Every structure is written in structure tokens, then in C-alpha cells.
Automatic annotation (TrEMBL):
Name of this protein: Saccharopine dehydrogenase [NAD(+), L-lysine-forming]
UniProt-listed Pfam families: AlaDh_PNT_C (PF01262), AlaDh_PNT_N (PF05222)
Residues covered by the Alanine dehydrogenase/pyridine nucleotide transhydrogenase NAD(H)-binding domain: 167-342
InterPro entries per the UniProt record, alphabetical: AASS, AlaDH/PNT_N, AlaDH/PNT_NAD(H)-bd, Lys1
Reaction catalyzed: L-saccharopine + NAD(+) + H2O = L-lysine + 2-oxoglutarate + NADH + H(+)
PANTHER family, sorted: ALPHA-AMINOADIPIC SEMIALDEHYDE SYNTHASE, MITOCHONDRIAL, SACCHAROPINE DEHYDROGENASE
């Protein structure tokens, strides 16, 4: 088989992302497992894995990647750094017509680039195969507990981004001493799974939705809430998940019952803009609205959580929402404000662990397709552009891309 030269690019987007698609060990594993693969790495002074860590394992460091066939990054590649006529893998954030990336898609077409978007890599069942969701959940839940502890002056946790690895972060768990609060975790995917991992390891007990709503506890507890627990369709008695995902606009939120008993909300559920919001800003002004801390881990600005008015940064992860005025204020100022954690790049706080997980998925799911003529069609389904044109599935982006040329 002829060699395919794969270049791991230096991340060019600002603010800089420290994650990598393949760690040093995963580069070695890729070359050992796929005889056609040769992996080189563009030097970078910002990666969570240093150039030395790659070099020590015999991975070639190479500044000029124009002789590579495939280029792999994590975030969007700046337009002036795109090399024409190559195949690129990265998160392009173009499929929802995100305004700030129209120029990027235009450049991909102009430069005859084949763009494969990680977000679109799915198996035959439509489930994503590579994602950072688990680490968003892990860091998000940790940040949520950190925020609650800080708000009520209960304990001080070291921020996740100051921890070298997840093991260092887990050393902080023993500091967590919570009163008998109730924590609601929404969602059933990777993100919610990561969040519940943290709560379990902190020794916080999981209870049923019924018990969460109607029982009192002498210890902190959490419940996992699925869509059917807080949405209903007024004209249909029985919950039907496929119907909800197909027609979310026909549903209304019943989350109000949870706002009366929940202290800390961890929002981990994927949200469709057609679906109802969990609650309204008006609800937050009701005397029985109990939630005072929200970790919006999915971080949809003005999405399922109406109090998430903007995203936050790793360095300044929180702000307060004042229910009486609807305005945002500095965090931890007033106890009757709702404190919001809305970091939109949570996995970047544990970049080494997140990158290991991601690389594992690339080797297990993506490379077998790549080096086997895309037998299951996974790469084809995830290819947005090829040969200077949008592929059939993504033709709807044509006007979006063309508008950027003006």
C-alpha cells in the first residue's frame, strides 16, 4: 500500500487551543497499526504535549507540511494557513452557518480542499464516534461544584486548568463537603456521563427522579433527568422520544417542578433550538425558584438556559444573573443572584486527558475507514467539501459560503 503522509498541524486559532488530535503515543500506534501511515508533527510551543515528547518517541517534527496528504488539527484553521489541494480534518463549525466561519468555508472551496469535519463522523446508527463531550462533562461538573463551593464559601477547589492531569484534579475531590443539596443533571449522552462520573467519585448519591422531587435527604444527592422528565406534548399522553426529537416544537417544558427543589443545575443535554427552554426568566423571579447555581456545560448562549447570556472563559468562568433586573453582574456578589458557569471550551482545561481520549477514537474508528477505502461510508458522510465544491449533503451551505466572497 502506498504511504499516506499525515501532518499534525500547529493550532492557529486565537485564543489558542492546547489539545491535539493525536498524542505522541497515539502517533506511534497509528504508524504501527496502519502500514500505510506516516505521521509528522508541526512544531508548536503551545501544545499540551511538547515537541520533545513527540521527538522522544521518534516522531518527525516538520515545519513545512506541504508534502503531507492529510492534515489534522482540532479547531478551525485560519484562512491564510490553509494549504491548497489537501485533505483536512478539524472542527469547522460551519454546518449551522456560523457567521464567523463563512470565509473559512469559502477558502476551503477556493483552495480545492477536501474538508472532513470531526463533528460529522458518525457510525451507521448516527452516533458520533469522535468527540470531546466526556471531558466537557467532567470539567463542567467539577467547575459546577467549585462554583457552588465558592458562592457559599464552603470550600476552595483548585481550578481544573491549573491541574496537570485529571489525577491532580481528582486529588481535590476530598475537599468537597456539601450540605444536603439537590443537583439536577440533564441529558443522557457523553457530556452527562462525564458529569456523573465526577459526582459519583465525589461520593454524591444518585437518586431516582421521583425521590429527587418528593423526598428529603440528609446528604447531597443528584438525579439524572432525561427529556421525558421535563417536557410533554399537551395533545399526547404517552412520552415518545422519537417524536420529541422529530417535532420538539410541539412540546412544552415541565421543568418548573424541578426548579422548586433543585439547588445546583448541571445542563448537559443537547438542545434543539426548536425545543422549549427549560424555564423562563420570569420563572426565576418566582419566590419558589430554588436554583442558585447553574453549570451550563453545553453552553448554548440564549439556549435551553435563558440566563446564559454569554459564554465565559477558563480564566473567568462565572458571572451572576440578577433575577430582579435580568442583568448580569460580577459573580458571588449577592446570595440571591443566580451564579452561572458557562465556559464554552471546557475540555481545554484538561487537554492531555481529553486528547488521549480523542486520539483513541481516531485510531479505533476513523483510521480503519480511511485506510480501507471508507467501507462504511463514514468519511463520505462527514465530507463537507471536495474538488472545489460542496458535497451533496452540504449543498445547503452554498449561499452561506458565497456570501463570504462579497
Amino acid at each position: 500500500m502506498e504511504k499516506v503522509k499525515i501532518g499534525i498541524i500547529k493550532e492557529g486559532k486565537i485564543p489558542v487551543d492546547k489539545r491535539v488530535p493525536l498524542t505522541p503515543k497515539k502517533c506511534v500506534e497509528a504508524m504501527q497499526g496502519f502500514s500505510g501511515a506516516e505521521v509528522v508533527v508541526q512544531p508548536s510551543d503551545v501544545r499540551c504535549f511538547t515537541d520533545e515528547e513527540y521527538a522522544e518517541l521518534g516522531i518527525t517534527l516538520q515545519q513545512d507540511l506541504t508534502d503531507c496528504d492529510v492534515l489534522m488539527g482540532v479547531k478551525e484553521v485560519p484562512v491564510d494557513q490553509l494549504i491548497p489541494n489537501k485533505t483536512y480534518f478539524f472542527f469547522s463549525h460551519t454546518i449551522k452557518k456560523q457567521p464567523h466561519n463563512a470565509k473559512l468555508l469559502r477558502a476551503v472551496l477556493d483552495k480545492n480542499i477536501t474538508l472532513i469535519d470531526y463533528e460529522l463522523l458518525t457510525n451507521q446508527q448516527g452516533q458520533r464516534v469522535v468527540a470531546f463531550g466526556r471531558y466537557a462533562g467532567i470539567v463542567g461538573a467539577y467547575n459546577g461544584i467549585l462554583t457552588y463551593g465558592k458562592k457559599w464559601k464552603l470550600f476552595d477547589l483548585k481550578p481544573a486548568y491549573l491541574c496537570h492531569e485529571m489525577e491532580d484534579m481528582q486529588e481535590e475531590y476530598f475537599k468537597v463537603k456539601l450540605p444536603p443539596i439537590k443537583i439536577a443533571v440533564t441529558g443522557g449522552g457523553r457530556v452527562a456521563g462525564g458529569a456523573m462520573e465526577v459526582l459519583d467519585k465525589m461520593g454524591i448519591k444518585k437518586v431516582s427522579v421521583f425521590d429527587f422531587l418528593y423526598k428529603q435527604f440528609k446528604e447531597p444527592v443528584y438525579a439524572q433527568l432525561h427529556s421525558g422528565d421535563y417536557n410533554n406534548r399537551p395533545d399526547v399522553e404517552v412520552w415518545d422520544s422519537p417524536d420529541f426529537y422529530a417535532h420538539p416544537e410541539l412540546y412544552q417544558s415541565t421543568f418548573r417542578k424541578f426548579t422548586k427543589v433543585t439547588d445546583l443545575l448541571m445542563a448537559c443535554a443537547y438542545w434543539d433550538p426548536r425545543a422549549p427552554k427549560l424555564f423562563s426568566e420570569e420563572d426565576t423571579r418566582q419566590p419558589d425558584f430554588k436554583i442558585d447555581t447553574i453549570a451550563d456545560i453545553t453552553c448554548d448562549v440564549d439556549g435551553s438556559i435563558p440566563t446564559t447570556k454569554r459564554a465565559t472563559t477558563i480564566i473567568e468562568p462565572t458571572y451572576d444573573y440578577n433575577p430582579n433586573t435580568g442583568e448580569l453582574e460580577p459573580p458571588y456578589n449577592r446570595k440571591d443572584n443566580i451564579t452561572i458557569m458557562a465556559v464554552d471550551n471546557l475540555p481545554c482545561e484538561l487537554p492531555r486527558n481529553a486528547s488521549r481520549d480523542f486520539g483513541r477514537n481516531i485510531i479505533d474508528y476513523v483510521f480503519p475507514q480511511f485506510f480501507n477505502n471508507d467501507e462504511g461510508g463514514m468519511l463520505g458522510r462527514a465530507t463537507i467539501a471536495k474538488g472545489g465544491e460542496l458535497t451533496e449533503r452540504y449543498k445547503y451551505l452554498q449561499e452561506y459560503a458565497e456570501a463570504a466572497a462579497v
